[in-house]
Design goal:
The chain is an alpha+beta fold. Helix content is 35%, strand content 16%. It is built from 6 helices and 5 strands. It has helices spanning 25-32, 77-80, 87-94, 104-117, 123-129, 141-152; strands at residues 4-10, 13-19, 51-54, 57-60, 73-75. A 5-stranded mixed beta sheet has the order 2-1-5-3-4, with helices on both faces. Strand 1 and strand 2 form a beta hairpin. Helix 3 crosses helix 6. The longest helix has 14 residues, at 104-117. The N and C termini lie far apart (52 Å). Bound molecules: FE2/S2 (inorganic) cluster (2 copies). One FE2/S2 (inorganic) cluster binds next to loops.
Length: 153
């Protein structure tokens, strides 16, 4: 298959990478660009573990062709915490919000987007914001409580 060179601004750095027409963004980020926080869970848009910011909005990177991201800005968990853990991340730690941690990168980005758009969400708004991010370990309560607490600080 013919490869195409695409350019991304990834976590603040300009990166160029060759991709095939059917490469999905999650695979290019993990396998070609060395960004490991987005995870492959379901690989079909259901679980949210592959969440990244694309031009300021969260997307499921398993559903985005890499070639569609040419010229775009991508921010992953590595990008939002490059100056140290955010207030939200500290709150997740304080609440022991994760067990295996597989869902954590996507959950943190979904919650980050929520608080950017709505700094003081109601509990129902938090539940709605993370509804597309599945967690198999925690029952969600420590995640929701951490987000609520981060809003108070
Ligand atoms: S791996 Fe993308 S939504 Fe599950
Ligand atoms: S902590 Fe294991 S899936 Fe969420």
């Amino acid at each position: 298959m013919t490869k195409t060179s695409i350019q991304l601004k990834l976590n603040g750095m300009q990166r160029r990478v060759d991709v095939e027409p059917n490469d999905v963004l999650i695979d290019v980020l993990r396998d070609k660009l060395g960004v490991k926080s987005p995870k492959v869970g379901c690989d079909r848009g259901d679980c949210g573990t592959c969440t990244v910011f694309l031009n300021g909005r969260t997307v499921r990177s398993c559903l985005v062709l890499a070639i569609e991201a040419d010229g775009c800005e991508i921010v992953t968990l590595e990008g939002i915490s490059k100056d140290g853990p955010t207030k939200l991340q500290k709150s997740f730690v304080d609440h022991s919000s994760f067990q295996c941690g597989f869902c954590a990168p996507g959950m943190v980005l979904a919650a980050t987007e929520l608080l950017q758009n709505n700094p003081h969400p109601q509990r129902e708004e938090i539940q709605e914001a993370i509804a597309g991010n599945l967690c198999r370990c925690t029952g969600y309560s420590p995640i929701i409580e951490a987000i609520e607490d981060a809003c108070k600080k």
